[in-house]
Amino acid sequence: MLNWIEAGRRVRRQTVTDERQPTPSPMDAPPAPASSARLQCLGIVDTRKIEFSQTGAYVEYGMNMRHGEHTWVFWRRYREYARFRARLLAHAPSVPSVATPLPPKHMARHLRSDVAVRLRSAKLAEWLARVLDEAGDALVYSADTLAFVGLGSLLPEGSQLPPIHVSMLHSVAESGDVVLFRTKATVPAIQRVITNSAWDHVGILVFTDRLSAVCAAADAHQCGFIECDINGCRYYPVKSYEVQHWHLQYADIAVRQLQWDGRGAPETIMKLREWCHSVLGKPYQLTLSKILNGRSIGPENVDQGFFCSELLAHAWKAIDILPAEHPSSGYWPVDFGASASRKLPLRHKATLGDEISIDFRTPAVANLCHVPTRPPRLNRAALGGSGEWGSSDENSDCSDMSSGGAPSDQC
Fold first, then answer.
1. Bridge partner residues of 134 (DSSP)
2. For a tag on the chain, would you pick the N or C end, based on fewer CB atoms within 10 A?
3. How far apart are CA 22 and CA 240, in angstroms?
4. Which InterPro entries does UniProt cross-reference here (predicted)?
């Protein structure tokens, strides 16, 4: 057994601890002066600890921001503050606040001492407020600054295409597309070096209807990934990647379109649905014999389990995209990336599209609050829900989602 590869790559279905989402309303911020059209940091709102078994734990700091009559909260970890300051130093080293060092991290204590976290969060808020106050408009409204405070996204390094936000996956993806993962851990990094690949894990994207059955993107109620990791072959809703912060364990997650005449067709959807019935719940298995026999021609036995790329190849064989005579275990994550040296033997004139990174970060502007220029005369009850923080029902169905299990036997 070579399960150590998967175990070292990730045991990633962990929960986020100390996840306290602030719920301020516009009443909580002081009224904005009529002339306050400049970007401002109003201070720290809260902190939260994100913890994963493979990538460790860290603290995120929630900052309350204002621009004109709108306020919002964005979350960043200490490392992101350091990177942001480094970018600012490259463009404006003479600005005193930019040149001021960040508060020390105290690596031995920063996750164990509430006092240290509170002191650091207050210092970070003070530093950011000074930067926005002292820097010129060219720096305050630069792409780096706007992305840092949650008003936009930057193109991922090495990407040739702009990312697609996770909420818009239905506009570019379809059931059967490949999902590529670049994990933030040592063993996956070694795997990528050995295989000369940008990716160390793959999955298959599927859309599901309200009965949790695989469907076309046009009929979808939600979206998810079918993957085979150390937990076995399971369905993971995209919502869980957002709510449980699973995406933070990856440097990049991208989708590649499987482009062919059967894309989204009823016959293809039916085959994918039947395939789901046959594989969900199967164990993870990567053995030496699979590696040695992966290039051979002949029948295969997949009843004992899969590894990630074997599962994807098995799915594509089920919809007649890959030839049946080649073992599914002969395919690796590198084979499904754009930089693969070996061309996949796709049938029916099928091709793979470009790698499109998925942006899982919810823009802070999605939770903008309107702050009136004069103190309001209405009380909280009179305001109702129209002006409350986070009134969107985007996460209203989170309680119905699996925390990492298969959708149901209807899939």
1. none
2. N
3. 20
4. Papain-like_cys_pep_sf, PX_dom, PX_dom_sf
